[in-house]
Amino acid sequence: GGKDRRSGLILTIPLCLEQTSMDELSVTLDYLLSIPSEKCKARGFTVIVDGRKSQWNVVKTVVLMLQNVVPAEVSLVCVVKPDEFWDKKVTHFCFWKEKDRLGFEVILVSANKLTRYIEPCQLTEDFGGTLTYDHMDWLNKRLVFEKFTKESTSLLDELALINNGSDKGTQQEKERSIDLNFLPSVDPETVLQTGHELLSELQQRRFNGSDGGVSWSPMDDELLAQPQVMKLLDSLREQYTRYQEVCRQRSKRTQLEEIQQKVMQVVNWLEGPGSEQLRTQWGIGDSIRASQALQQKHEEIESQHSEWFAVYVELNQQIAALLNAGDEEDLVELKALQQQLSDVCYRQASQLEFRQNLLQAALEFHSVAQDLSQQLDGLLGMLCVDVAPADGASIQQTLKLLEEKLKSVDLGLQGLREKGQSLLDQISNQASWAYGKDVTIENKENVDHIQGVMEDMQLRKQRCEDMVDVRRLKMLQMVQLFKCEEDAAQAVEWLSELLDALLKTHIRLGDDAQETKVLLEKHRKFVDVAQSTYDYGRQLLQATVVLCQSLRCTSRSSGDTLPRLNRVWKQFTITSEERVHRLETAVAFHSSAEKILQECPEQPEAFNEMEQFDEIEAVGKSLLDRLTVPVVYPDGSEQYFGSPSDMASAAEHIREKMKLVSLKKQQLRQPEAATPES
């Protein structure tokens, strides 16, 4: 890469300790000397033989070999010697004496003195210079250059043959020539890319001298690298552009023929087998399964059509691309093909879509009809099962469920009518693409089937409505029945509570006659309330009997509630009578006792008969005895009024009044006893 002071190129020959093959060295020198231009060679070479690691006889052989390989081009040979090693041997062979015979000057020089003959900026670091040089990098770039040169030259020959063959002869000869040499042996794009990369690399490689001189590259103009690459690239681009045009014309002709052939294939199939498939499909099925089978068959037909539609899309894109290319000679033919293909495909696609929509509508119609039929079956099954609810709430819930089912059936029938009418409208438009085929018979069968399904569902719904009306009346009566039974049971509970209150709270007998009479009056009103409750329960139970007869069912009231009502009422009556008897006895006792206790002792004539005192005592004792006796019911059970402490309190009050009466009696007897003594 360096230059000597005469602007001649510097050739460095590094020698090593191993044996150096002179033949290989000769071939290498021949190759290196073939790279520079003749102008560059005319300025001569400076050869540096680096013998620092070699033997003297090898160095001498190399120098003598330069005489045979490049005698005219070599102007100076600098042999770099080891320090103080060859001095004795130099005397046996002085190169400077052989200058005339060798044809060039040979000097022995140490590495540190080489700068006397060559500028340091033109020497590499091995010789104390500053020139940057990477031999492997240079070698790799040179190999790339050699490869590019070889491939581009071969490719240019092939492209020229192909292009020239397409410009001569008849059309038939053109096609035959193009067919024979249509594909080059290497990819032109790859070769061009390699060339551009190489040229870019060459243009970027610059080396500056240490003194700031003009920059230069070892593979620049003087080494013919860049001019050769640029020239080859220009030639390649020109031939490749012509080749691309040849290929484009050939591809366009081939593509147009293929498009014409494929268009006719698509049109012939769609107007032939495709249309025939649709002509045979007219039914809508009489059930979901039948409609699904027809849909599956239609999907198979659509699948076959989809393959051809995919071809149509591809062809349409190809035609559009050719139309955009703007070749006048093909525009009319391409537009005609495109229009014919589009008309046939759109017509067939519309027919497929119409058929698919019709089958989908039929499937929806049959689905709604099946759902409605199942709803009617469920409603009918519910109506056919006898109602045996446990209480009025369950009846209300069942009645609500019945109403909801009936409402759902109404909505289902309305939806069926809408789906059916929509399907009938589509069937009425079916003849518009029948290709002249009379579809009246097929349409009539479909229409009759749809109308028959809707009429059948309407009749079934009407029958269910009539049964629902009967069931609704029956269930409302059952609600009334359970209500009467519940109220009657409540009356029994109320009566039981009244009986319990009578036994536990109606205990007092009064402290005097007036209070006892008030208690007796309250008791009669209490009995009136119980009587009303009993009468209300009886009326409810009578109503249940009437409802049971109407419903033809056996009520629990006749065997349970009525006996309970009568039993509780009987117990209440017995208890009430006992309460009345005690109160009346208490009134008689208090009235007699108060009368005696209130009369003045100055009227002894009022007490002529002592039997009154005896009678009061007898009533009091009877009342006390009554308080200790329980109420005995017909079933043998017994109940006491209040607690024992309550009865003891009432009895204690009576005993106190009896003591007052007894004391009064004694006071009246004392005057009678004193009178005879006086």
Automatic annotation (TrEMBL):
Keywords per UniProt: Repeat
Xref: Gene3D superfamilies: 1.20.58.60
Record domain CRAL-TRIO: where: 1-135
UniProt-listed InterPro entries: CRAL-TRIO_dom, Spectrin_SESTD1
Molecular-function GO terms, alphabetical: phosphatidylinositol-3,4-bisphosphate binding; phosphatidylinositol-3,5-bisphosphate binding; phosphatidylinositol-3-phosphate binding; phosphatidylinositol-4,5-bisphosphate binding; phosphatidylinositol-4-phosphate binding; phosphatidylinositol-5-phosphate binding
One Pfam family, short name: CRAL_TRIO_2
Protein family according to the UniProt entry: Belongs to the SOLO family.
Stated name of the protein: SEC14 domain and spectrin repeat-containing protein 1
